[in-house]
Fold this protein.
Amino acid sequence: MSDSIDRGRRLLLGAALSGIAGRTFAQAEPLVPSSRRMETLKHVDAGVLNIAYYEEGPADGPVAILLHGFPYDIHSYVDVAPQMAAQGCRVIVPYLRGFGATRFRDSATLRSGEQAAIGADVIALMDALGIRRAVLAGHNWGGRAACVAAALWPERCRGMVTVNSYLIQDLSRAMVPLSPRYEVALWYEYYFQLERGRAGLAANRREIARLLWEEWSPQWDFNDTTFDRSAAAHDNPDYVDVVIHSYRHRFGLAAGDLCYAEPQRRLASLPPISVPSVTLDGDKDGVLPAGDGSASASKFTGRRIHRVVPGAGHNVPQEAPEAFAAAVMELVRG
Amino acid sequence: MTEKTAAAAPHAPSSKRLEPLRQVDAGVLSIAYYEAGPADGPAVMLMHGFPYDIHSYVDVAPQLAAQGCRVIVPYLRGYGRTRFRDSATPRSGEQAAIGADMMALMDALGIRRAVFAGYDWGGRAACVGAALWPERCIGLVCVNSYLIQDIANAMAPLRPKREVALWYQYYFQLERGRAGLAANRREIARILWTEWSPNWPFDDACFERTVVAHDNPDYVDVVIHSYRHRFGLADGDPHYADIQRRLAALPPITVPTITLDGAGDGVAPATDGTASAAKFTGRRVHRVVPRAGHNLPQEAPEAFAAAVMELIKA
């Protein structure tokens, strides 16, 4: 099941050199992280949201939807998106609910951050853009959104790339403790259960995000510009509500939005993922330690490859964009 | 106001046990305690914290006894061989209860006045006793200054770096945290010791000597209640409602006081003592102890014992 990233890179280079996508991949070795912004954004009404998203690549190309996590933003894909566009993909990178310029269309909609909601948002975005099928790729919350959509709506999913394997939450086991050294890393999740944590996030969202970036990616030498570019997305007026709800709901300590009762009911059975999948772990991930993928093997009933990405932390697409892009391209090519 | 202590002379930590223990009915508890020194000497109550035990004072107690003190080192409720006398008593860990326990122990032992000295939970017990029963208190030695909890402000966040260090307090709000503490109390204690005392090279024997005190049948209940009550997320025992009402006013401490901060404290960073100055209306000296972490009496026993002796001699 495991595979090395070197093989992935060879596959990517091999594919690029053989001209499958009609473009060569010129940027494989030491990559200078881009300082650009992903602009101009587009906006579309999709379900309960007006979603802000970045698009790149040919409109008739195979679609890849790249889904960011917490506490990040679309710039986790700043180096992945152009690599994929250059290989002929239509790349869509949305801001999740509560992030960036994405807005709720109705002030009365519950600011839910539950897994069913962020998964349903992906499908709503595809519907709004007339996209029938796409590769869904993500990390952290975005990886969870990809898993939810792939599990519940496999007919819409050509393949899935996630960091940290199977991410659908088992709420029925949320009160089972982990070994304390893993619980320490979840300090923010416990903090967010209290109103003190909500107030702390509202007042100190940048400081908290920076701590998490540093803890989760101990070898990633990001600079202030890189951090500020993403952290600005957390000034969204719904950020605090969505984040707090997300972390309370997963422990069964906040009720879900009734709108998503049906998908959440289906998610509670921990449905398998049948579409072709590539799962990546960063071997320096400071919050979810890398594994060999075997613990989640039974959740992947289709073809699945697991890789450990050397040197990468939790924000794999931004820290190891070649590895992430290579995984997506393998699924695009089928 | 701040003094610096001289760096402690290199010191070989004791590997002995504080034995034999004595046992006395005191209020709602049967308290296990260690006693040393002359029965007619000035009394000193040495109060341990979480997740520690009486061996925080393994080197302090003999130093004080040798200088003529009657030293009393009790296991707090939920620790060691201290037991609740009635199975129906709520296993409260609230500040009023641990303060009242200390006074009940003094009553049971016929001790009219004593120096109250402690750190962490034990420092809080000492502050509660000194603030509410100053006539029983010769003087106070406390690590981290004024420790009476302002529950009304418990929902005000600290800087995120400080909040990270309180991970266990947030964890304990969830039933997952209760289950985690019950299953992994040793591992949690070792993580906290390591985080809170980054300069303290304790060994396995030292850790094991203390951590057996956490096998007390009431440990998990008392600890979880303590950390929920301080955030206003668990009700107090009505038995202590009047004491807790008085503590809610954040009463000043009038007795002579020495406050100590460990320069290496990983959970409550060392201060210059000014933030709490208004809470000490009597003579108060604040000191920063070089290198020491949160478990100051065990890490810097000379500095701790010297502070106690100053109050006794004054």
